[in-house]
Design brief:
The complex is a heterodimer of chains A (145) and B (825). Chain A has 145 residues and is α+β, with helices and mostly antiparallel strands. Chain A has a single domain, classed as Potassium Channel Kv1.1, Chain A (2-Layer Sandwich), CATH 3.30.710. Chain A contains six helices and five strands, in the order E-E-H-H-H-E-H-H-E-E-H. Chain B starts with 17 loop residues before the first helix and ends with a strand. Classes of the chains: A alpha+beta (145), B mainly alpha (825). Chain A: This is Elongin-C.
Chain lengths: 145, 825
């Protein structure tokens, strides 16, 4: 489902490591500081020229969730008491890593880890949380290494 | 969209892909890629680079905990680039004029040469700075992950901050060549040079300088980027302020010598505005308050004194009514000090000087004729007109008018030039008070001024004008410190006005009193009001007496009519009518009245004691007037001539003596004195009016001379001739005039005596309340109570306290640490 990249358009293309393409609204995608900088025309990197970002370390499954989150965030940007967005639990670690990679300002704040019905479940909190570096790194260290 | 890894029935967390994160990272290989990319970025050639790739590389390194290595590598890379390529480029633009100008002064090159060379250098520096910032921005973006994870965790400054401080160290802090100033020093010098060109009127490239200043503002002393350690502040601003201070100091001194004060003020104002604009357009807004401070210090604060004392300074401005210039000076000084001490001081001095001048004129005017004043009184009085106001009185009126004019002038200046500023107004008022109180006859003169207005001034004036006059009078009164002295004089003058019926309008008199009541308080006007009350009562009394006499039935057409004023002795300053000190010693002698008058007197006494028992009437014959019908023997071929003569009671008594004398008989001065008991001074004066003044010469004096001397003989003037039926014999010392020295001494003594009582009363009142009080406290409380009426003399208070102790109102406390007193009930 790859789409042609168009310059100056409102949409940008995000390409996963397994060659899935997602066409996303620029404003939504720029939630991630990394993507924002990649596409910054003043810096003039290749991505900005092509209007396309390739992510060699993010798979399509994960990237889809990320894009979903972009829109979810945009939709609820100015509202209060937004319900948490649920991710497939089995993807949580990969999403965590992607979120870290794309910049934690992405407001995918990394979540409360808790036990419910005797099975672990990571509930991604979509409310902006200012600085959860500690929360994140502990989860990250626990699970990744 | 993309395929979706479906959720199974049983949830299993997928492990992250190992391949990427787990594999070993070849640091050097990755660094080589990054370094190459960085070079591309620095040459503005980033379009072929994939941000994601670089970002991922940096990410990988950091993930592998090699963030520190990466950080150091980048720093080294930047340091090398700046230290070599960039610096060389910048140093190359430093041309000879710049280097020379730094060392050996500006004389060798022209301003425009220096300007263009400087601009070249500034441009290059600014360009490098811009480039550095842009590329470092991109580098930082690429290294974002490193900044986020490594720098934050290890408390390292971000790579951007690091590279900025590298720029500072490598470019600015390094000497251009060995043993030569650093780039920063040269830079500072160039900017300062350009600013001084700007001040001299050479146009400079303001936006370029502004950009460089931006650069300095963006750099900090340390990597921590503390807000008040901007390089701009530490390296440039201090030097800028210092050279500015020097420049303005020199300029201020030059201008003080060369131009006039008004021009100086305008220049200073322009310079301040200029510097404010310069900060906006060329330097930094941060500096605005500081440079303003410098200019204000150098051009205003340190020069204010000189400026005010210039030939064309404040004195000149006041003299020539340069209100706008004064306003300028005021504006300038209020910039540096809200209290405006110099201007205030100068204004005070001017007022004091002008006031002293007025005082001096008044003094000389009043002392010159004083010697002859007394002798002329009689003669002038006989001239019998309002012109008899002597020179001293004129001087008094002139003094008040001038003081009022002075006050009005400065009030005007205050309003128009000083925006009615509180401090200056207060200071000016204080000086006015000082001037007025410096003049020891102030109280008397002001009272005279009011007196004159009451008698003549308000004639034919509208109500508004009268009001204005009263207001003027009150204004001056307000300044008086010794209000008790004023009260004494006012009472005296008012007394004469009332008794001699000189006042134009009793209504206005009463208005004046009520104004004083508002200004000076109830106690001040109490006695004055009592005087008015006495007058009203006396009028009623006179009517009552006349009715009583009429009812008596013994209507005797020959009976003399009597109008009487019964005065409360305490409220009326009766001594005002006595000639001077001589009389006060002589006990009030019993005047021998002619039988007609005595009869009248006794009849009234009888009537009065019938009305009020237990009151003693003391007759003040020296204040009365009498109307006589005088018949002169027919002259050759004429009928007997009758004249209505109006004269003082004494003159009446004297004239009546001659009724009993055989024709041609004469009396000597001594005989008259013995027969009448009139005090000698009054007698002499009255005889002078009757026998010397040409129009009222009812008596003939032997020998004929101007002065009345012992042994002179008087006889009735049969040949008196006058065209008028009604003749008024001049009443001696009827007008209110300036006191003679002797009179003043009496007044002063009386005032002092009165003050003594006031002070004693105050002390007793305080002590009664406090029981025990230290000396110092008692003094200060007494002063604060009494000062509403006059400024007390501390010595006098001490004496009064002593006297109170002697009379056992107070006693000294023996064991008190400070001298104290106790009240003895």
């Amino acid at each position: 489902m790859a789409t042609e990249a168009s310059d100056l358009s409102d949409y940008v293309t995000l390409v996963s490591s397994d060659e899935f393409s997602f066409v996303v609204q620029r404003t939504a995608a720029c939630l991630s500081p990394a993507i924002k900088r990649m596409l910054d025309p003043t810096n003039g990197f290749l991505e900005a020229k092509m209007n396309t970002c390739r992510f060699d370390n993010i798979t399509g499954v994960v990237l889809e969730q990320v894009c979903e989150y972009f829109y979810y965030n945009q939709k609820h940007q100015n509202s209060k008491d937004v319900p948490d967005m649920d991710f497939p639990t089995e993807l949580c670690l990969e999403i965590l890593i992607a979120a870290d990679y794309l910049g934690r300002n992405m407001n995918v704040p990394i979540g409360n880890l808790y036990t419910q019905n005797e099975r672990p479940r990571i509930n991604f909190v979509t409310r902006p949380i200012n600085d959860n570096a500690i929360a994140f790194s502990s989860v990250y260290d626990m699970l990744c290494f | 969209m993309a395929s979706h890894a479906g959720r199974g029935g049983r949830t299993k967390i997928r492990a992250p892909r190992r391949g990427l994160n787990g594999a070993d990272v070849d640091f050097d290989a990755i660094w080589t890629v990054l370094e190459k990319a960085f070079r591309e970025i620095h040459t503005k050639n980033a379009s072929q680079l994939s941000f994601e790739e670089l970002y991922r590389n940096a990410y990988k390194i950091v993930l592998k905990k090699k963030g520190e290595e990466l950080y150091n590598k980048v720093a080294d890379f930047e340091q090398q680039r700046l230290g070599q390529d960039v610096r060389t480029q910048i140093v190359n633009t430093l041309s000879a004029p710049l280097m020379l100008s730094h060392g050996s002064g500006n004389t060798l090159t022209t301003a425009s040469e220096r300007l263009s060379a400087g601009n070249k250098f500034l441009k290059e520096l600014q360009q490098s700075w811009d480039d550095h910032q842009v590329s470092m921005g991109m580098l930082t973006d690429v290294l974002m992950y490193m900044d986020r994870v490594y720098c934050a965790d290890h408390r390292q400054p971000s790579i951007f901050a690091k590279s900025m401080s590298l720029f500072r160290d490598e470019i600015l802090r390094t000497p251009v060549h060995a043993d030569q100033p650093t780039t920063l020093e040269i830079l500072t010098h160039i900017i300062l040079d350009q600013i001084s060109m700007d001040r001299d009127g050479h146009p400079i490239d303001q936006s370029l300088v502004k950009k460089i200043v931006y650069m300095l503002e963006g750099l900090y002393e340390s990597v921590h980027e503390v807000e008040d350690e901007k390089l701009y502040l530490s390296a440039f601003e201090a030097a800028f302020l210092e050279t500015s201070a020097e420049f303005y100091k020199e300029e201020g001194e030059r201008l003080l010598k060369e131009s006039d004060a008004g021009a100086y003020c305008r220049h200073a104002k322009r310079r301040i505005d200029e510097e404010t604009n310069r900060c906006r357009s060329t330097l930094s807004e941060m500096t605005t308050p500081k440079i303003q401070q410098v200019v204000e210090d150098e051009l205003i604060r340190n020069k204010m004194k000189g400026l005010i004392e210039m030939d064309t300074g404040v004195q000149h401005m006041v003299d020539n009514d340069r209100l706008s210039d004064l306003a300028l000076i005021f504006e300038l000084e209020s910039r540096v000090d809200a209290r405006k001490p110099e201007l205030t001081k100068a204004m005070q001095k001017i007022i004091t000087d002008m006031g002293k001048e007025i005082n001096k004129t008044a003094e000389t005017a009043s002392t010159t004729p004083a010697a002859t004043g007394n002798d002329q009184d009689g003669v002038k009085a006989k001239a019998g007109s309002n012109k008899a106001v002597n020179q001293q009185t004129v001087a008094a009126l002139k003094w008040v008018e001038e003081i009022l004019a002075l006050r009005e002038r400065f009030e005007n200046i205050c309003k128009l030039s000083f925006t009615s500023d509180q401090t200056v107004t207060t200071a000016i008022n204080r000086s006015m008070a000082e001037v007025i109180n410096l003049f020891h006859r102030g109280s008397e003169y002001i009272s005279l001024f009011i007196d004159d207005n009451m008698k003549k001034g308000i004639k034919n004036k509208s109500e508004a004008e009268v009001d204005a006059t009263l207001e003027k009078a009150i204004i001056v009164v307000r300044y008086l410190a010794d209000k008790d002295v004023f009260e004494t004089y006012y009472k005296k003058h008012l007394c004469k006005r009332l008794l001699l019926d000189k006042s134009q309008s009793i209504d206005v008199e009463k208005q004046m009193i009520s104004r004083m009541k508002i200004e000076l308080g109830n106690s001040f006007t109490l006695k004055l009001e009592a005087m008015f009350k006495d007058m009203t009562l006396s009028e009623e009394l006179t009517t009552g007496y006349r009715r009583y006499v009429a009812n008596l039935g013994s209507a005797d057409p020959r009976r003399a009519d009597l109008g009487i004023n019964v005065l409360t002795s305490m409220t009326w300053p009766l001594e005002a009518f006595r000639g001077g000190a001589e009389d006060s010693n002589e006990a009030r002698t019993k005047i021998i009245y002619p039988p007609v008058v005595r009869q009248l007197k006794e009849a009234f006494e009888h009537f009065y004691s019938g009305k009020h028992s237990g009151r003693k009437l003391t007759w003040q014959s020296n204040m009365g007037t009498a109307d006589l019908k005088a018949t002169f023997p027919r002259s050759k071929g004429g009928k007997p001539r009758t004249h209505d003569v109006s004269c003082s009671t004494y003159a009446m008594i004297i004239l009546l003596l001659f009724n009993d004398l055989p024709p041609g008989g004469s009396l000597s001065l001594e005989e008259i004195e013995a027969k009448t008991n009139i005090p000698k001074g009054d007698l002499t004066r009255n005889l002078q009016s009757l026998a010397v003044a040409p129009k009222t010469r009812f008596l003939v004096k032997e020998p004929m001379s101007r002065d009345v001397k012992p042994g002179d003989r008087f006889s009735f003037n049969d040949n008196f001739k006058s065209d008028f039926v009604k003749i008024k014999v001049g009443v001696v010392s009827a007008g209110n005039k300036v006191e003679g020295d002797r009179e003043r001494k009496v007044t002063d003594e009386k005032t002092n005596e009165g003050r003594g009582f006031v002070i004693e009363a105050a002390v007793v009142r305080i002590m009664k309340q406090r029981k025990e009080l230290s000396h110092a406290q008692l003094l200060s409380e007494t002063i604060s109570i009494v000062s509403a009426q006059f400024i007390p003399d501390v010595n006098m208070i001490k004496k009064r306290i002593e006297s109170l102790i002697e009379r056992e109102y107070l006693e000294r406390l023996e064991d008190a640490p400070v001298p104290s007193y106790r009240y003895l009930a």
